[in-house]
Structures are given as C-alpha cells and as structure tokens.
C-alpha cells in the first residue's frame, strides 16, 4: 500500500485522481484530503476513502466540516496552518491540485518531506520558480508533472540526454475562442469562457485556456521543469488536443505523446511512474479523429503567451507578479467586473508598475504575491468598467 495525500481533493484534478484510486483501493492509503469551502463534498470523500485527516483551507468552515465528519474518527482541521501541517505528513506521493498561488505553501511543505509530488498546481511553480526547484533538490523530492503537456514532455525525455534537445513544443488547444475575432473577444462572457471544447476543468484554468494565459503559465512551468533554455521552448496551436506535446532532438527525431484528452491519463502516469496502470478510457481511435492540425499562435488576439515569455526572460519575481495579476483579473472577469480582453491588458498594466527584486525564500514569494494582488485589485477598482 502506498500513502497518498491530495491537496485540492474536491476539484477537477482531485476528482480524476480519486477516480483512479477508487478503481484500485487496495493499492492506496489516503492520508490527507483538502479543499477550500466545499466541506460537504470534502467530508463525503474523506469518509469514502477512509482518510486520516480532512482539511478546509477556510477556517470559517471548520465547524461544518467537524459536523459532517462526526462519528467517523477522521480528524478535521481548518485554516492555512492546518493545511500546511496536513501536507507535511509523510506520504509516498502528494497530488498538488489546489488552484492558484494558494497552493504554494502546502506544496512546499510536501516538498520539504522529500517525497514525490505530482504537480498540477502550475501557479505555485510559476510564482516560486527557483525557490521551489531548489527546495526540491535540497530535500531530495521528486517533482512529477501532472499537467498534460509537461507530463507528455517528461515521457518524451525519458531515456534521452536533455543536452541533445533541439526544441520542446507545447501544444495548445487554443481554447473556446480560438477562431474568434478581436471584436468578438471584447464581448466574450464568463459562461462562454468556461465552456472548453476539449477538456472539463475548473473555472480558473478554463478562463486561462480561453485567454491563452494557461499556455503562458505552462511555458514558465516548462522553463523550470525542463531547463533546456527558453529559446528552445515553443508553442503551437493544435485544436484536437491529441498530441499533448513534443520533444525534437538534434538528429531530427521528434517524439510526441498522444492520448485522449482526459486528465486521468497523465495522473495515472504520475501515480504509477515508472510503472504503468490501467485507466478506464477508450483507446485512442485516430481513424475516427481523422485529422490532426497545427497552426502558429496569434499573439495579437492572445497576448498572454508574449507576456509570459517576457516574464520568464525577466525571471526573479516577475512571473509571480504576472501570475498574481492574472489570478485577480480572472476573478474580476468571472465576477463581471472587467471584460475578457481586459484580462491580458490588466496583467500588462500590473507588470509595468511593479517589478520587485527576486525572492530568496518562500516568505519572499508570498510577500510578492500579496503585494501584486493588492496592486492588481487597486488598478481594477480605480477603473472598474473600463472598456478594452
Ligand atoms: P478546481 O477549481 O476544479 O479545484 C481546485 C481545488 O483547490 C478544489 O479542491 C478547491 O477546494 C481548492 N481550492 C481552491 N481555492 C483554494 C484556496 N484558496 N486554498 C486551498 N484550496 C483551495 O481546479 P482544477 O481544474 O482541478 O485545477 C487545479 C490545478 O490543476 C490548477 O492549478 C490547474 O491549473 C491545474 N491543472 C488542471 C487541469 C484540469 O484539467 N482541470 C489540467 C492541468 C492542470
Ligand atoms: Mg496543460
């Protein structure tokens, strides 16, 4: 039996992970399950999987969580410190699936235990960058990418010398607005943005996919996971989401990983690595799919990838500022406070007015993130319904 904790158990990645565990219950002992405010679902999962502890990040929800777990013998805890404590419990693998920089401190706590981390929470790595990768090295932890593109790249790099990589290409579906004109994008609504054509995901990453900030964050994520040099990292739009990413070697060979667009595939690869386990998905039917197409990204309609590349080039604290500004802008867009095209414009505005020095430790990253959020909120509040 292997011990597992899932940070963000009630989300889309959490549900996909638990679905795989449900199919092989004898292989796993669930230690910690965490969530934000959805304590009814959290308690239900904790009971089903016999978790040792269930944690709500929102201390105000602890009372309800305790009631929902009454008589189960499962520990209940609440608040940010409890989240970090639960993430510090010894396990074989932690799935880091909280959305946003809120997942940074617990993910770092798991890294400090020196185990294996299946990283879905890309915002944490984007924000912390070298602070996280150096902690991974210092504590002898293993970071396995859950993000489908990075999981694909990880698989394509296996057994090869990274020094022989000519380029790494991240594929992007292009999101629901792939073929929309700039004029149409100005009027895009939250309901339209969260309706992704290929993937079923949480609201924040769905909006990121629509703006292409998801691919921008993934570019920075790849830069830290696969340090081959930013100039070797490319992005290509691939509407079918069948090729999850590719690695080209100096001899002209390109290796790609293909699979159904279901996160249980990369999660299964992380749970079993370096072995393979069964997933309940239908085999890939390329004849039925018929065609795979590719096109260059359009940074005029979708400036996010340009902003992310610039932030990665600047390094230090700048990716954390980009991420924080984007998180605030996405929340404002979902709340109907700003228009769709204002998201990238807003991130660019925040980047142009806040360039703190490089963080040296987790506390520095958290401080940069907090300050960037404050500035991002102030900018939005000073021009609430500003047109694009
Ligand atoms: P989601 O919104 O469905 O779930 C997020 C989880 O985090 C929930 O359990 C929620 O309770 C918890 N959470 C939210 N705010 C929190 C806070 N402030 N403190 C503590 N916990 C909090 O999100 P998701 O789609 O599962 O995505 C999770 C992460 O995985 C994101 O970083 C996303 O970019 C990444 N990811 C998701 C997918 C996907 O297909 N969904 C694919 C690749 C990467
Ligand atoms: Mg991805």
TrEMBL record:
**Catalytic reaction equation(s):** 2-C-methyl-D-erythritol 4-phosphate + NADP(+) = 1-deoxy-D-xylulose 5-phosphate + NADPH + H(+)
Q: Which HAMAP family match?
A: DXP_reductoisom (MF_00183)
**Could you tell me which pathway this protein works in?**
Isoprenoid biosynthesis; isopentenyl diphosphate biosynthesis via DXP pathway; isopentenyl diphosphate from 1-deoxy-D-xylulose 5-phosphate: step 1/6
Its source organism is Novosphingobium anseongense
Sites binding 1-deoxy-D-xylulose 5-phosphate sit at 122, 148-149, 173, 196, 209, 214-215, 218
Q: Which UniProt keywords apply?
A: Isoprene biosynthesis, Magnesium, Manganese, Metal-binding, NADP, Oxidoreductase
- E.C. no: 1.1.1.267
DXP reductoisomerase C-terminal domain: from which residue to which, for each copy?
A: 258-374
Cofactor(s) this protein cannot do without: Mg(2+); Mn(2+)
Q: Please give the Gene Ontology molecular function terms for this protein.
A: 1-deoxy-D-xylulose-5-phosphate reductoisomerase activity
Tell me the domain of life.
Answer: Bacteria
- Its name, as the record gives it, is 1-deoxy-D-xylulose 5-phosphate reductoisomerase
Q: Please report which protein family the annotation says this sequence is part of.
A: Belongs to the DXR family.
Q: Which InterPro entries match?
A: DXP_reductoisomerase, DXP_reductoisomerase_C, DXP_reductoisomerase_N, DXPR_C, DXPR_C_sf, NAD(P)-bd_dom_sf
Q: Which residues bind NADPH?
A: 10-13, 38, 121, 123, 202
Q: Which part of the chain is the 1-deoxy-D-xylulose 5-phosphate reductoisomerase C-terminal domain?
A: 143-226
Pfam families hit by this protein: DXP_redisom_C, DXP_reductoisom, DXPR_C
Q: Which residues bind Mn(2+)?
A: 147, 149, 218
The chain positions of domain 1-deoxy-D-xylulose 5-phosphate reductoisomerase N-terminal read 4-129
As for what it does, the entry says:
Catalyzes the NADPH-dependent rearrangement and reduction of 1-deoxy-D-xylulose-5-phosphate (DXP) to 2-C-methyl-D-erythritol 4-phosphate (MEP).
